[in-house]
Task: structure prediction
Amino acid sequence: MKKLNNLLKILTAQVMTIAIVLTLVEIAGQLYAYSNPGYEALSAIPDRTVGWRLAPNLEYVHTGGHWYANEFSVEIKHNSQGFRDDNRSTKKPPGTTRIALLGDSFVAAKEVAFKNTPGQILEGLLNNQNLSIKQNQNFEVLNFGIGGIGIGQSFLTYRQYAQTFDPDYVFLFIFVGDIWRTISPLSAITNNIVEPHQLKIRPFFSLYQGNQNIFQTLLGVLNFRLFHQILLDLKIQKLATGNISFPTEEEYLNLTNSLKSLITEEKITKVSENLNQSSLLLYTPEESDFDEFVRLQNERVESDMGEDRTKVREHKIFLLDLWGKIGVGLNMLNQKFSPELSMKEEFDNLIKTYGPRNSDVFSGSQDFPNFEITCFINLKVLETLNRDIINESRKLVIVDASSHLVKNGRLPANLLSTILEKYCKVNGIGYIPLYQPLNEAKRNGTKTTWPKDGHFNENGYRIFGEAMFQWIEAHKE
Result:
């Protein structure tokens, strides 16, 4: 009995010690969170042309999506046009070369101070008096980045806003997530609405060519049948047995290189010729959806955001947050020391995103259209944007980060980068393989993105700005 009492005392003491330690950790965590608050900002407003854009003249603190600021806390200021930039005159000053920077949140760059955004880095490098490129010129880099938009909306942003500022160069940032936004009417900006009632507020695009099936014609020129067939077979295997036989890393690299070799300049030339014979279709949001978007946002501003459109995020249990981070860290360690786990996650993602929903290998998955068709639509958008820019004696340059900012699989990201590079070469469009210096930095141990947020950190945005500068320096007249 005495031994049992001693054991109970020991267990009680251990439990109390653990409870005290956890309580102290929770208190310390909450104190840290109070001194580093997270902010929620309603930073975008409805826009009839683009879908949405940044709210003009808004000032707030951006801390990402976390409930406290655990990676960055940045003061943000929008200009009178509704972009993260200085106010610029529409009329270009004499002796000035203007560069318009288009793209999504990686262009808006809210994760770093304004001086560290890629546009400001580029502008600073170009205006450095010690650089031979200047030649008594002044350079202005105008930031037209809008979070959450796709390539199609960047095109609309150019026509509606950037074009009026008379840029000499137009740089368009692209990563693989942007191509899906071009063909989807749904948007992350309203995805917290219950699914059956989600609003289709994003303008999206497709192709048309009379009675001909333009997509079948294009797939006859360039397709990745083997990729889709492998995913279909794995999907069937998983349904039948519950298990999948994943390829090794070497086999995966060989498959990637084999599919990349299919993307030749000859095929891209034929794709371009066929696209040139098609029409680009623009679908704008239904008035009812757009009006509901406006109503819901006004309601949110009036109810809990206020005129400054911002508020402190509600606090959560710090220990749960800490436990989640530990879990993520352990998972990363497991993948590092167990390559098969990393490959399993890769192919689970590929099957979910790209696995054909039926026996037609080009049918697309349950939630995503066919990859090649999505690429073709985006190439048509680039063709149309480039035509606008050429007609105004300007130059389009694609800044491609797809093979670094991998989303939904490494293989499709590599295919997209190869397609973009060949397309730009065939059609006289400037091309910057931004993923190359980013990947090189990563191999050398330099972190280019915030681990949790996923956007570029100061290193990533610096490399972004420097890559654009190097392109201009290499192509100066």
In short: The radius of gyration is 25 Å.
